[in-house]
Amino acid sequence: MSAPATGSRGGRLTDLPVLLVAVVWGSSYLAAKGVTTERTVPAVLVLRFAVVVPVLVAAGWRRLRALSAVQLRGAGLLGLILAGIFLLETYGLVRTSATNAGLIISLTMVFTPLAESRVRGTRLPGSFLAAAGLSVLGVALLTQGAGFSAPTGGDLLMLGAAAARTVHVLAMSRMESVRGADALSLTTVQLGGAVVVFAVLVALPGTGSPPWAAAAGFGAGDWLGLLYLSAFCTLFAFFVQMWAVRRTSPSRVSLLLGTEPVWAAALGIAVGGDRLGPLSLLGAALVLAGTAWGRSVADRGRAAPAAPAATAAVVPEEERERA
């Protein structure tokens, strides 16, 4: 049975929850920044995902038990990479603005096809390379504020998180051990592995507050923020993606989710009080334009007939977990 036409009422109704996920993800930088300090990063991550993982286990217990030992090991390895993404993003976020964080992390959209083309020895179209260059120039300007200076440590950590996301996407697409694994089970094992990493970090001396100490210092607003990150930015987002890809095309879902940096910037400025100078505003516009352009080139590459390996544009479907 064919998927619903994208112009149909059913297609539009499918788009709305997916677009809401993009808004929720865009707001997650502001929410995480509100409940996290540099000393509480691992503790907050433990609290956040300790709520999520039991729900995922309960929802997919039968399929989770069906995973083979090889698939479990592969998913566990991916969980280590995922833990690195969460740590880089969260430590970066507490050292930079929510606007910068949301825009810099969007570079994953151009990093992934670039890395994939190198791995496969293929060539990307010149238009994609131009879009990537525009995005990188935008990030350079975005981090400058009122004048040219070195990027902050938080900006560099977010850049590292974008690179780590790229590694995660490539690993998921190329690891034989996880091919054919149920998506919910794969996500559950990865998040479980990430929580183990966070718990180990919390137990090490000098890594900040333990979860119970961080929780004791939370006010009502902090608990609401943590619940929002767990329930909406993780559980709601994951289940909406699973629901939507069965009713529309993965490329359409990816395109709608690609509006995340727009919402991150809008909410960071309107709600978070971020202030951008002229150079930063120009940089933000270039990042949004470059990633949108690159995504449109990527979508055309997916839709085009298969080309010889030496010249085909390699643009993998972006699979991501939200931090």
Automatic annotation (TrEMBL):
Q: How does it sit in the membrane?
A: Multi-pass membrane protein
GO CC terms in record: plasma membrane
Report the transmembrane regions from the record.
12-31, 43-62, 74-92, 127-147, 153-171, 183-203, 223-243
Keyword match Transit peptide: no
State whether keyword ATP-binding applies.
no
Which stretches make up the EamA domain?
16-143, 154-292
Compartment list: Cell membrane
Supply the Pfam families for this chain: EamA (PF00892)
What keywords appear on the UniProt entry?
Cell membrane, Membrane, Transmembrane, Transmembrane helix
For this chain, the family text in UniProt reads: Belongs to the EamA transporter family.
Q: What is this protein called?
A: Permease
- The organism is Streptomyces bungoensis
Q: Organism classification, top ranks?
A: Bacteria, Bacillati, Actinomycetota, Actinomycetes, Kitasatosporales
